[in-house]
Amino acid sequence: MRHVRLGVVVAWALTLLLLSAPVQAQQTSAANPEIEEQAMAVLKRMAEFLTQAQRFSVTVDTGFDVVQDSGQKIEFGETRQMVLRRPDRLRIDVTKRNGAKNGMLFDGKDIAVFNTKENVYATVASPGTVDDAIAYFLTDLDMRLPLADWLDSQFAKTLPERVRAAAYVEPSQIAGVPCDHLALRGDEADLQLWVAQGAQPLPRRLVITYKREEGRPQFWAQFGEWNLAPEVPDALFVFTPPAGAVKIAFAPQQSMQPGAAQEKGR
Predict the structure, then answer these.
(1) Mean pLDDT of 137-163
(2) How are beta strands 73-85 and 89-96 bridged, if at all?
(3) Does 4 map to a domain?
(4) d(Cα 65, Cα 5) in Å, to the nearest integer?
(5) Is 224 inside any structural domain?
(6) Count of domains observed in the chain
(7) What phi, psi does 217 have (nearest 5°)?
(8) Confidence (pTM)
(9) CA-wise closest residue to 91 among 118, 119, 59
(10) 160: in domain
C-alpha cells in the first residue's frame, strides 16, 4: 500500500500559532472581535499553569490520518510518555502502534535520540536548559518534536501574541474529567482543545483538522496520567545505549523521526 505523506501532521503543536480566520463568539475582545474572552482566559490559564510547573509527566495517545493515493484515509498512531524537570531535564519515550520504539533524552549536557527497531542511536552535546535543547533539536538538527511549544518555559508569554481566533464551545467531559471545550480556527487548520476545569487546567484532548490538505486529514491527541510531582532522579535522563546498538550521526529527515516509518510504508 502506498502512503501519501501528510507533511503537517507531525507539526500539530504549532497549529496553535497559525490561527487567523474568524470564528463565531458570544463575547469578544474589543481589541480583536475574533477572540472570545472566555476562550482566551482558559487558554492563558492553561499555558500559565504548564509554564509554572517545575516538573511533570504525562502520557499522550495520538492518532493521525495518512491519505492514500486512492483518497482513503488510514490512521496511524503512537503513545508518547513525556517527563519534564525544569530547567534542564527532558525525556520522551515513543511507542508506535506497530510496536516500534524510539525516543529522546536531554540531561542538561547532551541530547540523545534512539530507535530500538533499527537499533541505532545518536548523541550531540547541547548544554543548557530544556528551552535551549528544544531550539537546537528543531533548528540545528532539523528534527521534529510534537508539543515542543508546550514544553517551552516562555509558552505563557508567547501564546497570547500568536492566537488570532478563539471561541468557547461548551462545558464537556473527557474520560470523566470536566473540561472547557474550545474551538480555534485558522487559515491552514481548525483546532479543538479540551482543558480540564478546576485547580489544574491541564490539556485533556486535542483535535486538528488540516482543511487545506487533500482529504481533510485529522490529528488527535488524548492526554492522561498527568503527574505534577513525579519521581525524577538524574538517572532517569541519562541515556544508556541498548546492547549492540549502532551509533550514527544526526541527519535531517532520518528514519528515527516521528512519522518517518509511516511515510516509508513500514
Answers:
(1) 85
(2) antiparallel
(3) no
(4) 10
(5) yes
(6) 1
(7) -65, 160
(8) 0.81
(9) 59
(10) yes
More confident residue, 36 or 262: 36
Kindly calculate the radius of gyration of the chain based on its CA atoms and give it in whole angstroms.
Answer: 19
Domain assignment of residue 2, yes or no: no
* Identity of residue 110: D
The alpha carbon of 157 is separated from its chain's Cα centroid by a whole number of angstroms, namely 18
Residues 6+ apart with CB under 8 A from 146: 10, 11, 12, 13, 62, 80, 258
Over residues 41-80, the pLDDT tens digits come to: 999 999 999 999 999 999 999 999 999 999 999 999 999 9
Distance CA 100, CA 257 (A): 12
Q: Let me know: does 68 contact 1? Beta carbons within 8 Å.
A: yes
For residue 18, what is the domain's CATH number? Answer: 2.50.20.10
Query: What is the pLDDT, as a whole number, of residue 232?
Result: 96
- Closest C-alpha to 142, from 116, 113, 118: 113
| Closest listed residue to residue 19, CA positions, set 38, 1, 3, 43 | 43
Asked whether 194 and 172 are in contact (CB, 8 A), the reply is yes
Locate the DSSP E strands across the chain: 55-67, 73-85, 89-96, 101-106, 110-115, 120-125, 167-174, 177-185, 190-196, 203-209, 218-227, 246-247
Angle made by CA atoms 29, 195, 33, in degrees to the nearest 5:
15
Tell me the one-letter amino acid at 229: A
Question: What is the extent of the structural domain holding 140?
Answer: 9-259
